[in-house]
Amino acid sequence: MKYRKLGTTDLSVSEVAFGVWTVATGWWGKVEKDDAIRLLQEAENQGVTLYDTADTYADGYGEELLQYAFPKKKRQDIIIGTKFGYDLKTPRWGHHKERAQRWDPEFIREACEDSLRRLGTDYIDLYQLHNPRIETVQDDEVFDTLDALVKEGKLRHYGVALGPDIGWRAEGEAAMAERKVPSIQIIYSIIEQQPARDFFPFAHDNNTGLLARVPHASEILTDEFTNQVKVEFDESDHRAHRKQEWLDTAFEKRNRVLFIAQETGRTLAQAAIQFCLSEPNIAAVLPNIVRKDQLDEFTVGSDVAPLAADEVAELYRLYDEEFASLEEIQPQRT
Question: How many Cβ atoms sit within 10 Å of the Cβ of residue 171?
Answer without folding.
Answer: 22
